[in-house]
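Hi C.,

You asked whether I'd gotten around to modeling the 224-residue construct. I have! Everything is below, sequence then structure, no commentary in between.
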Amino acid sequence: MFAGEASEPRDRPEAAGWKSVATAIHSLRLSSTPTLLTVAFADRPHPLWIDFSTLQYFWELPLADMPSEPGALTVYSQPIEPGDPPYPWVAWRPADPLLWQIGRFAFGTDRATWIRPGERYALQRWPNLTETPHSAEEIRMVASLTNGFLTVEEVGLLGGSDAPNAQRVLNALSLMGAVKTADGAATPPGPVPSATGPTPPPASAPPESGGFLQRLRGRINGGR
């Protein structure tokens, strides 16, 4: 599904395999130790590698063929030397498109395990979605986060969608490190085999004033 297409069905079952991968990624993104994450699949010959020192990945499977339910897999990590990338003979790629896909598949329309109910989010950087399946509705929800801190319900409303689809988008953006919370707090991540402990994320800016949402909703409605 690419830009302009309808949203995917909302009753897709949760892919437990991607959930474990997403949880490991979240943990390692908060770690100060340069780390390589390896995902080995029971039914596929080639592993997925993510280099957290450069935020790049390598996988021989094209993202267009990425399964929503990967089956049995093993996730493990190992420290790497800064400036000495692992497997330099492979074609590493920016991780944003991969993390977007994993974030959308991992939890479905449920909250990611590190997201707390009622948290307010704003866009910290625009994600690289040029090589990633996405709908026009999802882009509107991403854009709604550029002007202030919003709840999942507000993201759905301003994006012309609903809270379940907005939660899927927030899960993906959070996994990519593309959003920040209003209070700067985060749920402590779980351990990853062989990974070092996480470091706390930096504090975020205070939330915007209460009149922002009403003004933004008026601009969007006025443009329809």
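If it helps when you're writing up: The CA atoms of residues 60 and 119 lie 36 Å apart.

Thanks,
B.
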